[in-house]
């Protein structure tokens, strides 16, 4: 894994931990708590598009912040409004 991937994972986790909402990343049939850095390391090894599910009191702010980090690191993400 490259240092840029490591930096992305750390930044995603740190950003997620600023929010009270539940933030879950979906890739194929896997669902990972974005606040878990270990879960991110095992999931973000594969290139692809990820789906982001956010629920909670600060969900809108969390969605935008996580999306911004993915875009910054040139990773594909789709925010799911469910």
């Amino acid at each position: 894994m490259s240092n840029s991937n490591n930096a992305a994972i750390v930044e995603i986790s740190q950003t997620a931990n600023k929010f009270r909402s539940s933030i879950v990343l979906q890739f194929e049939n896997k669902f990972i708590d974005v606040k878990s850095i270990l879960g991110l390391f095992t999931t973000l090894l594969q290139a692809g598009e990820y789906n982001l599910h956010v629920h909670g009191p600060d969900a809108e702010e969390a969605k935008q912040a996580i999306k911004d980090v993915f875009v910054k690191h040139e990773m594909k993400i789709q925010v799911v409004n469910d």
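Residues 3-16 form the longest helix (14 residues). Helices lie at 3-16, 37-43, 59-72.
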